[in-house]
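Risk register update: the risk of archive-format incompatibility is retired. Evidence:
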Amino acid sequence: MNEIKVLIVEDEPVIAQNISMYLNNHDFVVSGIAYDYDEAIQELTTNTPDAVILDINLDQNKDGIDIAKHINQHHPIPFIFLTSYSDKETLGRAKSVEPHGYIVKPFN
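Archived output:
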């Protein structure tokens, strides 16, 4: 069976490491962790994963939704949002890029 490589895009290192640990312990391989837009684009270009987990708020001018737009234009891979944002405006923006899932944190 082929391992599924997942890129994590999360600006909080502790959360990124927790997600990574969970995935690595459940038959996934974390191909990389990106903490901002530029690192995410670099990982997508040099180390294309099979799927991406995206935080929306990255404390920058460009956010996870901008990364999702890039994925849709350049990389035919699924992505899900894992975020603490669930307001109507953010949900509308996220819906426009057609994610494969939207998980609101914190979660069990």
